[in-house]
Amino acid sequence: MNTRLPTFALALLCLISNWTLAQEPKKSDRTDSLSPSDIFRFTNTWEIHLTFTPEQWEAMEPKQQGRPQFGGRRASFLQGPEGGRNGIAAAFGIVFEYVRADLEFGTNKFKDVGVRYKGNGTFLSSRESLKRSLKLDLNQFVKGQKLAGMSQLNLHNSVRDPSGMNESIAYRLFREGGVPAPRTAYAKVYVTVPGKHDRQYFGLYNLVEDVGSAFAEEHFAAKKGAILKPVTPSVFSDLGDDWKNYNQTYDPKSELTEEQIRRVIDFSKFTSTASESDFAARVGDYIDLDTFARYMAITAWLTDLDGILGPGQNYYLYLHPKTQTFLFIPWDQDQPFGQFPRGTQEQRENLSIHKPWTGQNRFLERVYQCESFKKIYLARLADFNKTIFDAERIHRQVDELAAVLRAPIQEESSERLTEFDKAAAGQKLTITMGPGFQGGTVVTPIKPFVMARAKSVADQLAGQADPKTTNPR
Fold it and tell me: What span, in angstroms and rounded, lies between the C-alpha atoms of 160 and 376?
């Protein structure tokens, strides 16, 4: 039997096939074809357009409710009211609320996305400007709405980082060092509010991956772990047996099981009461020592004094459901590279690798006394100082980003471009910190810092550090 199709039939099939392909959206146009790795690439720059009604735009303006009254065991001056946000803005009584907006992300369009302002010190430093940090929640009002499998995105204004590069490079260094960390890209953000803004360019933002359930599932291959965001200079301190004494301090991002609650309390009691020998023998049952050594090595090298080394904020804890160990995830990396103004520039460049924290921190003190931790930690520092922290390598990353970021930053203003060019070139510059800080703060950008820091770490590892150098207070 002849199975060959007649010529006219073949032509018809080709015509139908070509018509079908023409109707198929391009991969870049399809929301369901994107993955987080498509969104977050080192130099990706997306266009985002947010459209608000005048009423929603006005409703998004933060509410000032007065400073909250606290009772019981308040672990930090940076804590907000029970059940609310933490951070200095929350402690001042500032409340952010979600409003509805329409979102265009590249060629993808979404209706009724939740949008609110975000940030603490960065919000206070930018509250008089249009360019404030934003949180986008696609799932806030329309359940199941996602972009590349993600429901939340963060737009950071980098008001304290004239280069706009700190987060991108710092998070990349954590990931290269084997520490789970958010991925980043950039976004040119436009806003429309009828009668007020007509697709007005607000500026270039850092687009930062959210640390939530999608992040945990991808990085830890687990769905039921607990995500916590502590705010306390005394993490894992014994606060008793009642979870209400811990809840605001650890700020869980989902409802915890009884087992997860018990694990936090048990580790807190263990850290506070275990003998030196028992702590050294069993601390690895509670924290993954290798991952924690990597996290601390990179944090100390970067002299990040606005996190666990300082007031005890700007990181997440993940309690793994299988191993029952706590893992640390970096957050809010807008002022690493010694740019958070504690102490002098010399002190920040020469921060001790053996006691990098400021003030008292019982948890870190105990861990750093454990030989099992110190051996891994110092080995990681020695390795990283020669590899991921190689100054020339980081300089090339700065130059790569500078070539991409200069044009969208130039669109913001000539003043913003001047500061950016100075930061990219490695010239000292002045940043405004906002409430609690006097005037502007002079900081050293990435290029000169990494050269000085690499030498200091090498000298300390070799036992040649200047004993007169003291840590910032």
Answer: 33
Tell me the three state secondary structure of residue 378: helix
Instruction: Give the number of C-alpha atoms closer than 13 A to the C-alpha of residue 111, restricted to the C-beta side.
Output: 0
What was the pLDDT predicted at 26? 39
Alpha-carbon distance of 171 to 331, in angstroms, equals 8
Tokens of 226: 């607990």
Positive or negative: CA dihedral 314, 156, 179, 149: positive
Three-state SS for 465? coil
CA distance 16 to 9: 11
Measured CA to CA, the distance from residue 148 to residue 32 in angstroms comes to 6
Contact between 192 and 176 under an 8 Å Cβ cutoff? The reply is no
**What's the rounded Cα separation, in Å, for the pair 383 and 41?**
25
Give the pLDDT score at 431: 76
Q: What is the DSSP letter of 107?
A: T
Helical H segments across 72-203, by residue range:
88-91, 121-126, 166-176
C-beta separation of 268 from 319 below 8 A:
no
Helix (H) or strand (E) holding 152: strand 152-156
pTM of the model: 0.89
pLDDT at 27: 37
* Chunked mean pLDDT (size 10), the chain, 473 residues: 41 39 37 83 97 98 69 63 79 88 97 94 83 96 95 95 96 98 98 98 98 92 93 95 96 95 98 97 97 98 96 96 97 95 92 95 97 98 98 98 98 95 92 61 91 97 75 77
CA nearest neighbour of 172 among 377, 389, 335? 389
Question: What pLDDT score does 88 carry?
Answer: 78
Domain chopping of the chain, boundaries: 29-215, 221-342+361-373
What is the DSSP secondary structure assignment for residue 287, as one 8-state letter?
A: B
Strand partners, 45: 186
Asked whether 453 and 444 are in contact (CB, 8 A), the reply is: no
Residue bearing tokens 């809010």: 332
Question: Do 426 and 445 meet the contact criterion of CB atoms below 8 Å apart?
Answer: yes
* Residue 354 CB contacts under 8 Å (≥ 6 apart), including other chains: 368, 460
Overall residue count recorded for the chain in this entry: 473
Q: What share of the chain is helix, strand, coil (3-state, %, to 5)?
A: 40, 20, 45
For residue 83, give the nearest of 248, 244, 225 by alpha carbon. Answer: 248
What's the count of helices (H) and strands (E) in the chain, helices before strands?
17, 14
Which residues are 206's β-sheet partners? 156, 186
DSSP one-letter code for 312:
S
